[in-house]
Design a protein that fits this description.
It is a multi-pass membrane protein. By secondary structure, the chain is mainly α. It is 78% helix and 0% strand.
Length: 253
């Protein structure tokens, strides 16, 4: 097996393992340890993501490419909102429903591409997506933790993430940039947007103040472990410029 394939397999395994672990850490923080500030949490994750990618760039693991400010800001705002909504969805829903939300992104992205970009998909793909939607529907109906706020957040997350996926693909093709290069340029904007808006959004949804939160040793430990995983997820995208649109955890991850 070539070194390229080994690198791809290794990066995919690291990304998936880190993504699953970080979802568990997020849910533990928000549901079990009493830290419900999902938007603020996401901003910290994105700061670590940028620092990790900056270090990777300095070690020449990928080449930085200049992207016009308008494109970076548009992508950063949309992507930041999408990631924030996904983490809020995790905070207000069960892990099972959250995973169903992420799965639902796939067929709805295909639907948008069919309606607005006139893309054609084979019957096999359409049938597979129909089965997937059926499973999402059954899981949603039988979820005992289903609630109105969580459902609304999940729907908003699906819509913004679908548009973000399509925008990511469009920008990559138009500017001939990799997902890693795009993420490196936009991560500071995403982090800044969520860092500023996070305390207000979290207070509105949870009626709690992040600045008044008293950290325990276990919460601090889980936070540290979570940020370490954030670095692993970012690092897993850098080898061979793996597409972040496929591995997007979306940091909720």
């Amino acid at each position: 097996m070539s070194s390229f394939r080994l690198g791809v397999i290794g990066a995919l395994f690291l990304s998936v393992a880190s993504s699953v672990s970080i979802v568990i850490c997020n849910k533990a923080l928000m549901s079990n340890l009493g830290f419900p500030f999902a938007t603020t949490l996401t901003s910290w994750h994105l700061i670590v993501t940028f620092c990790t990618l900056h270090a990777a760039q300095r070690f020449h693991l990928f080449e930085s490419k200049s992207i016009d400010m308008k494109t970076v800001m548009l992508f950063g705002i949309l992507n930041g909102v999408s990631i924030g909504l996904l983490n809020l969805s995790l905070g207000f829903n069960s892990i099972g429903f959250y995973q169903m939300t992420k799965l639902a992104i796939i067929p709805f992205t295909v639907l948008l591409e069919t309606l607005f970009l006139k893309k054609q998909f084979s019957q096999k793909i359409k049938l597979s997506l129909l089965v997937l939607l059926g499973g999402v529907g059954i899981a949603s109906v039988t979820d005992l933790q289903l609630n109105f706020v969580g459902t609304v957040l999940s729907l908003l997350a699906i819509m913004t993430t679908c548009v973000g996926q399509i925008l990511t693909n469009t920008i990559q093709k138009r500017l001939n940039v990799s997902s890693t290069q795009l993420l490196y340029q936009s991560a500071p904007f995403q982090a800044a947007i969520l860092f500023v808006s996070g305390p207000f959004v979290d207070h509105f949804l949870t009626k709690k103040n992040v600045f008044a939160y008293k950290y325990s040793s276990i919460v601090s430990h889980v936070h540290g472990h979570r940020q370490d995983l954030a670095g692993h997820i970012s690092g897993a995208r850098t080898p061979q410029n793996l597409p972040c649109s496929c591995l997007r955890v979306y940091f909720a991850a």
